[in-house]
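task queued by scheduler; priority normal; single chain, no ligands, no partner chains; default sampling; output format set to structure tokens
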Amino acid sequence: MSDITLTDGEALAQPLVAFVHDAREAAGVSDLLSRLNQQAVPVLSGGITGARQWCELNVPPRILLVDLDDTHWPLSALEELLGVCGPTTQVVAAGKAQDIGLYRALLQICVVDYLVKPFTLDLLATTLAKCEGQQAGPEYARMGRTIAVVSASGGCGGSTVAMGLSRLLSGERHLPVALVDYDRRNGDQLLLQEQTEDGGLAAVLETQELDTRLLQRALLRVDTRLHMLAQKPALGELSPVDVDNVLNLGGVLCRMFNQVIWDLPNSYPTGALEVLSYADLRIIVTELTLQDARNVRRILHEIGDESEGQHLLLVHNQSSFANTARSPATSLSSSPGARLTWCCRMPATRWRTA
């Protein structure tokens, strides 16, 4: 039965209804929508046929997500669905086919967007925001993705995760990657990437009007697809940094690279918390200790959850603290908006003197 109620003689349209291919996909879409703080969205199976039948019996929703798989004539079926829904409903199609001809045909019949399955959380969030007039889709799509990595406490391996991720994306995925080591006091990326030159971070942060040409000269080239900004560790007083300069740097990098990875120190100097808050993917590396559980809760309180379409990964690194009192994993997983996503074990480094 429909959940729609009548108020003052008029039926109220639901904000969003999704029709997927089967019950298994319904569970996945429901999980994505719940992470976007859309808890009560009906996610039903049946595809286009089920959507048309539902709209004939209920007031069409403002946004309708419909699956095209196993539909022999999707364009004609969508035209019938659009005729039932009327112009007040924005239809978003989804399917497995990667066909530019189909995409153009869908746009011509006024379908808002076409999502190739399996679609990601940020892509779904961007599409829904575009339907609600909150995001300009094409401009957003041209921007690179920002990945912010931070440790819950010192020694958890956040810098190692950032280094490994940059190598994976640039070396194996062949993506243009920029790595920013924002620890100006004790940064490790120059050491981990086996670089001896200064990474140009200090000069870039002091620039009020940053452009692409200046940034290209400041970037340190690690290999053909990996570039880095860093600052050699200094013990003296550091020059102050303007938050707007930090965010502007992130925006320019996203216009130049497909993936921009920030290695953030857990001391959170000026601008670090803002980068973590706005990043598309936030990775928090932690140990299972009471101190880290406290720190993770503090971080989540500041940066929020995944409701804006930003991924949040809580990574447990089984480091060398074997004798440290451990906190149950449920202490971290029970944090609002957090789930222990991945566990990794990094080999301890053996230091030898020459």
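post-processing summary
- The chain has two domains: 6-138, 145-344.
- The first strand starts at residue 6 and ends at 7.
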